[in-house]
Inverse folding.
């Protein structure tokens, strides 16, 4: 069964960012064969595929490093032709900076990009016309650094996670306004359910070392379930470890990447242990199982049919390919890197019809 599932993916491609590459690598989704690598400006983070224009958008948040530990914020998005695998354009959002989260509305031709705040304005979301590839608006989220951003299936509601702010931001995409702040104790990855009735948010913000691990020092890790209509938290799905990425498949499975650390003598932070992909149902929130993955899972995506999950792990610079019915790891892609970290953003690219 698993071979037939992968055979159906012939012609599809998985694109993976190497943050320290700095590159975007392309792999055959059916065979895992490496197809090509595109050099991009430092330091790439996330990817988003536009099926209408057949373009990949790649965000570049920092000169090097990551949120709260970087050498300076950048302002560029790299646009790549998904079929020829060549850079089409570099779009500079300056004076906006720290672009990271990417969410696409293919019906309206809008790309939403989370950007960090500055001394004179809060963080927000830049709206880009995907035809002209130029900014056409901005939505404030009233937090210093909105990081991940997702939109509902109708393209009318957006939600931004805020690492250090004690809330997630709900925005009206049609009016371009912030509509609610939902209390969440510092948030990481997030995802809408396939029907748009729920937002799943990883919390609290991932902090490692003695302060983060001290009993009672921080809220217990768990996926907060938000009703966007009432702007309230309705449930929490408990996890054993802090989480970074959250992804919902088209078939109603919630994929959560748990980060595990193990103690090391004379080290405050410890070291990365194998991470875990944990799967819940988006309807009744049942825990469906888990499987071990690489070190520091940072991004998750899935095939359009919901059969396969892809987990990019930054510390091991790997992508685990997981059969989501059996939770068996089918393959592990080794993503080239030139330093730390490695594998980061991903995008699934269906074959060109």
């Amino acid at each position: 069964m698993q071979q037939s599932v992968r055979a159906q993916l012939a012609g599809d491609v998985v694109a993976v960012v190497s943050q320290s590459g700095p590159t975007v690598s392309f792999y055959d989704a059916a065979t895992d064969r490496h197809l090509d690598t595109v050099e991009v400006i430092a330091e790439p983070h996330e990817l988003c595929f536009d099926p209408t224009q057949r373009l990949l958008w790649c965000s570049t948040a920092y000169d090097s490093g990551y949120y709260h530990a970087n050498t300076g914020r950048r302002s560029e998005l790299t646009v790549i032709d998904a079929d020829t695998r060549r850079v089409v354009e570099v779009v500079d959002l300056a004076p906006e900076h720290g672009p990271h989260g990417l969410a696409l509305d293919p019906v309206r031709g809008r790309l939403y990009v989370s950007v960090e705040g500055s001394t004179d304005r809060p963080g927000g979301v830049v709206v880009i016309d995907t035809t002209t590839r130029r900014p056409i608006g901005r939505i404030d989220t009233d937090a210093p650094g909105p990081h991940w951003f997702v939109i509902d299936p109708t393209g009318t509601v957006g939600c931004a996670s805020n690492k250090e702010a004690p809330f997630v931001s709900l925005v009206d995409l049609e009016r371009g306004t912030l509509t609610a702040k939902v209390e969440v104790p510092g948030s990481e990855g997030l995802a809408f359910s396939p029907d748009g009735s729920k937002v799943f948010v990883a919390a609290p913000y991932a902090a490692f070392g003695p302060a983060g691990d001290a009993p009672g020092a921080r809220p217990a890790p768990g996926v907060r379930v938000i009703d966007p209509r009432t702007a309230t938290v309705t449930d929490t799905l408990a996890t054993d470890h802090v989480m970074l990425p959250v992804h919902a498949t088209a078939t109603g499975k919630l994929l959560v990447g748990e980060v595990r650390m193990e103690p090391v003598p004379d080290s405050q932070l410890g070291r990365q242990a194998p991470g875990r992909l944990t799967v819940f149902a988006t309807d009744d929130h049942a825990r469906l199982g888990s499987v071990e993955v690489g070190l520091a899972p940072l991004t998750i995506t899935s095939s359009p049919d919901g059969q396969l999950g892809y987990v990019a792990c930054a510390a091991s610079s790997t992508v685990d390919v997981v059969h989501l019915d059996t939770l068996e790891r089918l393959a592990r892609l080794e993503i080239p890197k030139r330093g730390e970290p490695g594998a980061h953003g991903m995008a699934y690219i269906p074959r060109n019809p």
